[in-house]
Amino acid sequence: MTTLPGVSLYNQDRQDDDIFVAAFVARRELLEMLLNILRAQGEGASSEHQILIGARGMGKTTLLRRLAIAIAQDEALSARFLPLRFREEQYNVLGLDVLWRNCAESLAEWCDVNGHEPIAAHLDQAMETEAWRDPDAAADGFLDACRRIGLRPVLLLDNLDLILDALSEYQQWALRSVLQRADGPIVIGAATEYLAQSGDRTAAFYEFFHPHPLDPLTADEVFACLRALADLRQEAGAPVRAILARQPARLRTLYTLTGGNPRVLALIYQLLERAESDTVFTDLEALLDQVTPFYKARVEQYQTPQQRAVIDAIALHWDPIPS
């Protein structure tokens, strides 16, 4: 019996790589741009570091995973680079030594999968020693293991802003120094907003990361994503294919009301496949019921009660409010 690919909202690592790649329809141009930047990275040249900027649900984590798969599957890139992924929320990073140990843990996992078990065993033991509590020693140990493998690490760091904010100013400069080495790691990070340091001439990471904003998907991209997912879901996707063929205006209305957020798109797909409604209004009502926790969390991100009160007043006011 064939297992159908699921529609994942938050934990896309549950999906098989082949299914994940097949469903990756949007942001292909940005993916190829980032891969070309790596291809152009000369041997011994200083690193070029990138950061993806987008609100929650805009596909940052998805793109980082797709990059890891693309690097591993590209013959030329995999001969030069090893992509290292991390859990999305690295709340344990309270110092630079912890970040380097996280990198070493990711490297050890990569080694176990790619036939470098002795290096993985060495890293597992070394990380438990007192020496690796020193950031410089931990960085040297991590990079030495990469040199033994003969590949340059590409760190795919989600929530890069939170990681950098957890470091002291001294540690930020120390991290920058390592990232500027000729054989240093290449960082492709992601954040929900532009780094405050990027515009501060006195900060360690002033104009350090090249930003790539993730704009909302276009209507055509949304349609292509829905069609690709419906095809992957085979017979289960028949209701969605029927709506795409017979009621495209219904989907365009939903797109206009919800914007091009990929996570909201996944929610829309679930509603359409289950055929819970047959009109735009009931589509929207069902969607609002599902996204309430998502947008509640967004409102709670505002730092002051006054900001949250302003958002609440705007939401409850029926007529448009000028800025």
Task: Describe the protein's architecture and organization.
With 323 residues, the protein is α/β, with parallel strands linked by helices. Helix content is 55%, strand content 8%. The chain contains 15 helices and five strands. The protein has a five-stranded parallel beta sheet, sandwiched between helices. It is globular, with a radius of gyration of 22 Å.
List the helices and strands and how they pair.
Blueprint: H1 17-23, H2 28-39, E1 49-53, H3 60-73, H4 75-78, E2 81-85, H5 96-113, H6 117-126, H7 135-149, E3 152-157, H8 160-165, H9 169-179, E4 186-191, E5 209-213, H10 219-232, H11 238-246, H12 248-258, H13 262-274, H14 280-300, H15 305-316
Parallel strand pairs: 1-4, 1-5, 2-3, 3-4
Helix pairs in contact: 5-6, 5-7, 10-11, 10-13, 11-13, 13-14
Q: How much strand? A: 5-15%
Run of helices and strands: HHEHHEHHHEHHEEHHHHHH
- Fraction of residues in helices? 40-55%
Shape: globular
Oligomer: single chain
The tally of helices reads 15
What is the averaged pLDDT score?
84
Task: Label the structural class.
Answer: alpha/beta
Strand order in space, largest sheet: 2-3-4-1-5
Report the sheet with the most strands, covering strand number, pairing sense and barrel closure.
Answer: 5 strands, parallel
Unreliable sequence segments: none
Distance between the termini: 56 Å
Radius of gyration: 22 Å
